Amino acid sequence: MKMNDAPSLENASRLDQSPGPALSVVIPVYNEEAGLSALFERLYPALDALALDYEVVFIDDGSRDRSAALLAGQFERRPDVTRVILLNGNFGQHRAILAGFEHCRGARVVTLDADLQNPPEDIRLLVEAMDLGHDYIGSIRRDRQDAAWRRWASRAMNGLRHRLTGIVMTDHGCMMRAYSRDIVQLINQCNEMNTFIPALAYQFAKNPTEVVVGHEPRHAGESKYSLYSLIRLNFDLVTGFSLVPLQAFSMLGIVVSLLSGALFVLLAARRLLLGPEEGGLFTLFALLFLLVGLALFGIGLLGEYIGRIYQEVRARPRYQVSAILERER
């Protein structure tokens, strides 16, 4: 066993270029103590059945329970195919996956959540699709087991995202996906603080496709995505890949300005022709509130983009690795 500090960017680049297994499975883990044993029992037999040289890269995203200890125990049991990256804090699912991308060595990379909602046995479907020449494989959940409000919100956001970004992704909430080594290397070259990995991969892919995978109730524990987290994730997706919101608001501002000018001319002409009128105060208040609301919405939208610029120019590390458990090569 080897426990080493985080490698430098040069070392990470050499890892990308060095010969490695045919398949890497990257799994972010955050407070999944209750379900990890079941994951191990299903994951390794499913991968063994593929008859491929593989590695499993677990990324512990600052878990507060015994997840890190369970991952270390699994490394002791299967050190030949298991690697564990321990992050020094909770940086979020996508940054944890980016850490896995920078350290995995496989010619093909599959991402999988640790909650067993996507069956590990369906990794075979992604590998078969890549055998047909596809460099990026998305997934569509069959018979989703999520709450109704999450399914409705997901459908609504899928439609809105497609119109705003032009990214064709039937089910953006499923993280069971496959990437070629070329796409993973391109993603590793991006230094964005906040991104949506499947959408980024779609932009780089030459021959993407989607497959239908199973979806099961969460084996144990609770979802780490609250309503606020889902809203923030969709902000990342929309504002990180499109300027359409800013452009649409600019057009809305032009339209409102023209209508406001026309209303002013109409009111001035009415006063000159018919004289002053009684009342009308509440109408003016309604128009004022409308314009103030639009202005506040625009300020908030600008704040989203400016906040992202602020995060990028600070150039802080996206994550910090405290240790890596791996066997000497």
Largest sheet: 9 strands, mixed
Protein structure class: alpha/beta
Major beta sheet, strand line-up: 1-9-4-3-2-5-7-6-8
Helix/strand order, N-terminal first: EHEHEHEHEHEHEHHEHHHE
Record field, number of beta strands: 9
* Residue share in β-strands: 5-15%
Could you list the spans in which at least 5 consecutive residues all have pLDDT below 50?
Answer: 1-18
**Mean pLDDT, all residues:** 81
N- and C-termini, Cα separation? 10 Å
The percentage helix is 40-55%
Q: Helix tally?
A: 11
Rg from Cα: 25 Å
What form results from the Cα inertia axes? elongated
Write a structural description.
51% of the residues lie in helices and 15% in strands. The protein is of the alpha/beta class. It contains eleven helices and nine strands.
What would the keywords be for this entry?
329 residues, single chain, disordered N terminus, alpha/beta
Helix and strand arrangement:
Layout: E1 2-4, H1 9-17, E2 23-29, H2 36-48, E3 54-60, H3 67-77, E4 82-87, H4 93-103, E5 108-111, H5 123-131, E6 136-141, H6 148-165, E7 177-180, H7 181-189, H8 197-204, E8 208-213, H9 227-241, H10 244-274, H11 281-314, E9 321-326
Parallel strand pairs: 2-3, 2-5, 3-4, 6-8
Antiparallel strand pairs: 1-9, 4-9, 5-7, 6-7
Helix pairs in contact: 6-9, 7-8, 10-11
